[in-house]
Amino acid sequence: MATSMVIGTQWGDEGKGKIVDYLAEQADVVVRSQGGNNAGHTVVVDDKAFALRLLPSGILYDNKTNVIGTGVVIDPKVFLEELSNLEKQGKSAKGLQISNRAHVIMPYHIRLDEAEEASKGAMKIGTTKNGIGPCYADKVNRVGIRVCDLYDEDLFVTKLKYNVTIKNKMFTNVYGVEPVDFDTILRDYKNYAAQIKKFVADTNSTVINAIKDGKKVLFEGAQATMLDLDHGTYPFVTSSHPVAGGASVGSGVGPHYLNNIVGVVKAYATRVGEGPFPSEQLNEVGEALREIGHEFGTVTGRSRRTGWLDLAVVSYAAGLSSLDYLAITRLDILDTFKEIKICVGYTLDGKPVTGFPADLKELERCEPIYETMEGWQTDISGIREYDALPEAARRYVERIAEVTGVAIGIVSVGPNRNQTIVVQDVFK
Ligand code: GDP
Ligand code: IMO
Ligand code: MG
């Protein structure tokens, strides 16, 4: 049995897509378990960039099974657009499967996401406005529409009528926005259903059987620990569970099958949207990180907030996801810095903080404890062996392992597949 999982340890955009693409070469099956097209995973192959949102990052190989699992929320329109773009770029979706149990994002979810954000004022989350939260809310409220429901005309019409009636009352009476049209949605979604039918499968069985048959299965996380609905900086989170346990539920695979859990750590920190960010640098350091790192969102184009690496966050992620290894990404972005700070914990009212604060006001008052490390001031993007990294870069990486107590598996020094330094095998 060989499984591996790639998890975001910070606020997303750590480079999960690149690490999944790299590891996918060895995999038979690549599985997305949660989130939806709020994700934006950029994968670079031979200097050509592919922006993936719903499709697993194993899709760029021809011979893999790629699974969009049960815990994912699927916008079929976005899915079909993504597929068509991929095909235009010369890739095929052969071997792709969509869970028959996954929930479907409907136009009223997107409208609700926009209306709720607009009405929240200071409580605004800064969502990607893709209808993710409202779709998961309907799922939890047991009124959601699943992929398999699309193929039972009576059931689909009944569920759609119910939802459109209730949501339109909310649109007109509460939010003061335009209602949605039942007939248009029914027509469009019948059309989408016909187009995606060939991909629909019982993916829970696909994944379990693959594991039992000794195939190599790779789980691809979207979003990240600090955006987890239960464990992140609630309410400034997404509506799914990006921690390792979420992959178990979202793929329909028991926890004993999950091995080699890899936490992806960007060598500094970024956050898109609202919410606390203790090591944020609202100064020239933050500007430099944004400029050098081109820190602008793949999905929304929004400018990302930037700061120093926060190991209080990564250590929290290490426990929540029982991380076996770390993959440090974007180390090359720090190449020109003379000094690099690293947050190794927080103090609150002069006392060290243990655990990770639940209360956001408390978190906002936390003072990061910084260690200042020497920069390496050399271009490392061409280095392929760990021992060939400058000593200062190795010291930085090793300090991350020391503070978090998690071994280093991979160090990434550029977006391309080959810009990857394997410190130890993370997919055994
Ligand atoms: P994800 O959402 O976690 O998959 O990350 P994103 O794809 O949103 O953002 C990471 C960006 O960094 C992408 O543009 C990647 O191509 C790029 N990237 C990944 N690893 C590295 C690296 O080691 N160095 C550099 N310079 N870029 C990287
Ligand atoms: P990847 O997989 C970074 C953030 C949004 C917002 C919050 C809730 O590329 O790392 P949502 O639309 O999910 O309801 O928005 O979560 N967010 C992400 N930030 N990377 C992501 O995905 C994200 N997916 C959601 O910016 O703050
Ligand atoms: Mg991203």
Secondary structure topology:
Layout (H helix, E strand, L loop, with lengths): L1 E7 L7 H9 L4 E4 L8 E5 L2 E5 L12 E4 L4 E2 L1 H13 L7 E4 L3 E2 L2 H13 L12 H9 L12 H23 L6 H15 L3 E2 L1 H10 L3 E5 L23 H8 L9 E6 L2 E3 L12 H10 L11 E3 L1 E2 H10 L4 E5 L9 E10 L2 E2 L7 H6 L1 E8 L16 H14 L2 E6 L7 E3 L6
Parallel strand pairs: 1-10, 1-11, 2-5, 2-10, 5-7, 6-8, 7-9, 11-15, 14-16, 15-19
Antiparallel strand pairs: 3-4, 12-13, 16-17, 16-18, 19-20
How is this structure best described in words?
By secondary structure, the protein is α/β, with parallel strands linked by helices. The chain has three domains: 3-98 and 199-257, Adenylosuccinate Synthetase, Chain A, domain 1; 103-196, Adenylosuccinate Synthetase, subunit A, domain 2, CATH 1.10.300; 264-422, Adenylosuccinate Synthetase, subunit A, domain 3 (Adenylosuccinate Synthetase, Chain A, domain 3). It has twelve helices and 20 strands. The strands form five sheets. The chain has a ten-stranded mixed β-sheet with strand order 9-7-5-2-10-1-11-15-19-20, with helices on both faces. Strand 16 (339-348) and strand 17 (351-352) form a beta hairpin. Helix 3 packs across helix 4 (132-140) and helix 3 packs parallel to helix 5. It is globular and about 65 Å long. The mean pLDDT is 97. Residues 8, 11-13, 38-41, 125-128, 130, 132-133, 222-224, 227, 238-239, 272-273 line the site of 6-O-phosphoryl inosine monophosphate.
